[in-house]
Amino acid sequence: MTTFRPPAKSVCMSTAQPPGPVLVYAPDRGIGDLMWHLPTFRAIAATTPEGTVVLAARPSSRAAEVLAVEPSISRVVYARHFVGTLKGVKEVVDFWRICREVKPRAVWILEKIGRPAQAAWLAGVPERRGFGLGHGSQEQWLQGPFLPKAMRPDHRLTKLAAFEALHGLKVDSREPDLRLDPKAVAAVKARFGAQGEGRLGPWLVLGVGASEPARTWPAERFAAVSQALADLFPTVFWLGGPNDAPRLKPVVEALAGGRDVLACDLPLDQAAALIALSAGFLGNDSGPLNVAAAVARPAIGLMGTSPVPTYSRWLSRLDGGEGRIADISVDQAVEAVRTRFTNEAWANRDIPAA
Q: What share of the chain has pLDDT > 70, as a percent?
């Protein structure tokens, strides 16, 4: 690919603010990653007169759904993920297209990658910031200041905090505090609450889906946990995606008592509302686990190869000590839920609906 070099930076800079919004690019692909970045999005938005930013994200993050009622995000645009020999060229062209469409006055790239930085320069965006981290492929297109190369191995949350401090962004808490759509809350109440199926509380949500087998605890163990906690939870929701339903349906139907509810058909906003209305969450290291913390619900993560998220007081980690999710026993999971249920007095939460 032909390499373009930016011109030398002028020492004279206009104090007049160019028109157009601020565009923030978060290239991570998961819903959980999106939750980590929410405080940063809000901090950047708080520096703008309009109090909002346009977010560029990967389609797999489902940002347009997750952040549909987030006041600091005025709009979500998707930056496609490419593979193959022309991946780099396609990514530059795609982000150039986004910049030409959005016409931002500034771009903040919450990563070290160079292609969107080059694309923003080619599109004529006046202000361009990013992590840097000693990567000349990005830094040559941006104004800085940058995170040091020594921070490359650090966790994303550590990098975000350092980046915020470097650019004078004010973040009082890393708690995501995800906003819920009142219409989604109303829909969940109408279906499962007193006016619908009348599901008795406290509710426990089992996050049974995951993006890969290494992060997926066996369904049979979730079933054993549900049975062992029958004295605490009259209702247990099995929350996953539509693709999880075929493997989970026979397991749920085999359980006696009618306490277990397969909830793999909920749209994302209603899944978040269900979690928020429930007493607690036990599940795989996945998007719903991070959503549980983001809506301030006690959440126990069944971790495989991932480090425990440290950004929320609502999250705790459970593993078998060997870094494999299969090492976690049913007894360990049951004890973890019982301990937190007792110590924290878990109970369903009522949220006003639309």
A: 92
